[in-house]
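Retro notes (design track)

What went well: tokenization of the new backbones is finally stable.
What didn't: we kept losing track of which sequence belonged to which structure.
Fix going forward: every design gets posted as structure first, then sequence, in one message. First example under the new rule, 277 residues:
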């Protein structure tokens, strides 16, 4: 089984006993890039999707996959590209995160409010299906301090989360009713992204307690193949792991709705510029 598909099985396969419940859940397997995976009983598709594929994870279910071509890689790029950046290691990400926390506490919701990012530095896989899309940054100044790096990092994280919201909206417009994200992979070690995946999308976010959803999904498949469960669906239900849950912050709703409107407008402005001769 392909790694991301095993990961999706590991975090959302346990809901297969209830079709309506299953279609409320999406797996977000996020590291250097991000994959989003959703299952449904009926065939559903959307622009920028791979699939839907019949029975590739659970029998009698369709699997659809979307994604973002550069997410963790984009944050590394921002650190490398900025004059105040440095080594793109975990310590630098933590240092930036701590400074962001201080600046947000001091400046409130206005922190970096005029800075906006389109995160398509490596194309837009979903939902635009445009490998030639480019990134956009609006609101730069001559500031080259570490604080300016913190602002850009924060707004890039916001943009990544809004990109997930863009995919979610497209899926839900196509018949899904997703309101819960199961996040696994390297992004679970980035508290900023985990906060934003909930607050910027309005979804409940679940972080599986197990370290590796891909191994969990592979174990489910192996347990079914070994006859330890009567079916793969029952193996998924029996081996389903609990997770840490985060509910979206209602007080942040209006702020991220505004950011999302700006995000969509920037898509339109980029398109208009590219049409000019």
């Amino acid at each position: 089984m392909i790694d991301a598909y095993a990961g999706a099985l590991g975090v959302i396969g346990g809901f297969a006993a209830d079709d309506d419940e299953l279609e409320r859940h999406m797996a977000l397997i996020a590291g250097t890039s991000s994959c989003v995976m959703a299952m449904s009983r009926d065939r559903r598709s959307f622009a920028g999707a791979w699939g839907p594929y019949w029975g590739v994870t659970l029998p009698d279910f369709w699997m659809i996959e979307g994604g973002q071509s550069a997410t963790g890689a984009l944050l590394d790029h921002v650190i490398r590209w900025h004059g105040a950046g440095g080594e793109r290691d975990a310590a630098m990400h933590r240092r930036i995160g701590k400074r962001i926390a201080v600046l947000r506490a001091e400046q409130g919701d206005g922190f970096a409010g005029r800075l906006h990012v389109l995160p398509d530095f490596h194309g837009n896989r979903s939902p635009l299906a445009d490998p030639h899309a480019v990134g956009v940054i609006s609101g730069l100044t001559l500031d080259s301090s570490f604080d300016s790096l913190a602002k850009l990092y924060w707004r890039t994280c916001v943009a990544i989360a809004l990109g997930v919201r863009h995919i979610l909206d497209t899926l839900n417009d196509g018949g899904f009713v997703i309101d819960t994200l199961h996040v696994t992979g390297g992004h679970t070690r980035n508290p900023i992204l985990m906060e934003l995946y909930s607050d910027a999308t309005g979804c409940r976010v679940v972080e599986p307690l197990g370290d590796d959803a891909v191994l969990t999904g592979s174990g489910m498949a192996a347990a079914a193949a070994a006859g330890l469960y009567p079916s793969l669906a029952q193996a998924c239900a029996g081996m389903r792991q609990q997770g840490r849950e985060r509910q979206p912050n209602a007080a942040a709703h209006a702020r991220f709705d505004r950011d999302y409107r700006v995000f969509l407008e920037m898509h339109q402005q980029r398109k208009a510029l590219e049409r000019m001769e």
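Added context from the reviewer: The domain at 3-69+170-246 is CATH 3.30.420.40 (Nucleotidyltransferase; domain 5).
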